[in-house]
Amino acid sequence: MQQSAWEIFLNTLEKTFYTQLPVILACFFLLYILIHHLRKEKLSYLFLIYTISCILLFMGINIQSIFFPATGKANTVIGETANTFFAIIELFVFIAFFLQIIESRTSKKFLFLFSGGFVVAIILFFAKVLNVSTSRDDIMQASIAVNILEFLTFLIAILSYFIELFTKPPTQNLTKSPAFWISSGLFIYILASLPLLIFSEYIWVESKKSYFLLFSFHYASLTLLFLTIAKAFLCRKPITT
Amino acid sequence: MPETNNNLTQIVLATTFVILLLAGFILSILFLYRKKQIAYLKELECIKSEYEKTILNTQLEIQEQTFQNISREIHDHICLNLTLAKLNLVTLKPDDWQQNIDRINSSIDILSTSIYELSDLSHSMNPEFLENFGLIKTLEMETEKLKKPGLFNASFLLTGNSVFMDSHKELVIFRIIQEAFNNILKHASAKNVILRLYYNENHMEAIVQDDGTGFSFDQLNDNGNLKHQSGLVNMKKRTKLINGSCKINSEPGKGTSIHLSIPY
């Protein structure tokens, strides 16, 4: 019996314990906050682009899986390509943010180094995607490498920020510091998602249910990230303070 | 099935624990930062109150020294002159009119000198003088006063375009140069005194130089010359109060130079 679009959609949500819904709601909430509190800072526009691309990614993936379902390698290529484009936007936005809040030249050099590694990983990924003879597993591994490098870059940036926070004179009120909220949200998101990324292939083979469960935690931490970004923009200070 | 459920439960528990740990990490950062902030603000308060205490002490010292200067001036010159005048008038003889006329004339001269010195002292203590004439004119007049006794040559050189500074700063600069001139009069036995003013882009420099006997700071300590030493220390403190610097160079037999540098 062919399932209706609505049933397919509900099925997709059920797999990840309906944690996609809070992500989408958080996305729209962040979009509302960004539009209402849009400032003359470039970073405001960058975060707006980031939020819109996240909404488009979720909508696109769900529309594709409902109306244009694909199987096997084709499904992987579509999903991972969309994911990679989103990762590029994500890296660009957060690196632009961290370059403005981190003062240490050494940290900035490391950021550029890892970003360079990320670019290489992107090139390798697209090379594999465009190569017809590449297997599904190779494409998955290339996508995982892209995401791991992205997260490691963010981790260095966040740790540099926290180190600088404690080495500089403590004059800020952290609960009203937009930079602190964004860094904290991103930190939780990265550390909650990194195990899934690293062990995803192994967990997928062992237990698909466990895989989707871990994915739901990834979505939960993503929801938290969007909420902390929204909180950052609700603080009436420049985003880099 | 139960095994899968067990695995799922374990994963849920483990991941929840990890997320709680991360949230705890963030909260501990907030707590530690707040603790550091409180300690930092306390330290800042201490430094601020120490600084205010130092400023107050410096101002009191300066005030004390000023009173001492006034007291010394009045005692050493004016009191002495008035005593002399009184002595002249008390010792008038009814039968020796020529001597009386001479003594009266001498008393008039002494009283005129005292009135002039009192008026001078009053003007030099009154900051309105500086406000009315400006720093450069006032310093020119002080240099001219220095020449009057005829003990040495005093010259005033100005370089650059003058900049109007805060009246408080100008007063402090004037008082320091005045103190320097007083020291030269009392201790230096100099032949030549030069006062140079340089108006640069960001700051003003004043150099008071004499070719007198000079001194060494060790010499001041050994002779127990605390008044002179405290005068020099007060010069430096006054300059610091207006964010400037004061360098005093002197060697026995080689004269003294006092170099002030004051930002605008």
Secondary structure topology:
The complex is a heterodimer of chains A (241) and B (264).
Chain A: H1 5-15, H2 20-36, H3 42-67, H4 72-101, H5 105-130, H6 136-167, H7 178-206, H8 208-234
Helix pairs in contact in A: 1-3, 2-3, 2-8, 3-4, 4-5, 4-6, 5-6, 6-7, 7-8
Chain B: H1 2-90, H2 97-125, H3 127-147, E1 153-159, H4 167-188, E2 192-199, E3 203-210, H5 217-222, H6 226-241, E4 245-250, E5 256-263
Parallel strand pairs in B: 1-2
Antiparallel strand pairs in B: 2-3, 3-5, 4-5
Description:
The complex is a heterodimer of chains A (241) and B (264). Chain A contains 8 helices and no strands. Chain A is mainly α and 241 residues long. Chain A has a single domain, classed as Up-down Bundle (Rhopdopsin 7-helix transmembrane proteins). Chain A is globular. The model of chain A has no long low-confidence stretch (mean pLDDT 88). Chain B is of the alpha+beta class and 264 residues long. In chain B, 69% of the residues lie in helices and 14% in strands. Chain B has helices at 2-90, 97-125, 127-147, 167-188, 217-222, 226-241; strands at 153-159, 192-199, 203-210, 245-250, 256-263. A 5-stranded mixed sheet of chain B has the order 1-2-3-5-4, covered by helices on one side. The chains are: A mainly alpha (241), B alpha+beta (264). At the A-B interface, helix 6, helix 7 and helix 8 of A face helix 1 of B.
What fraction of residues of chain B sit in β-strands? Answer: 5-15%
The CATH class label of chain A is Mainly Alpha
**Spatial strand order of the main sheet of chain B:** 1-2-3-5-4
Count of all domains of chain A: 1
SSE string of chain A, helices as H and strands as E: HHHHHHHH
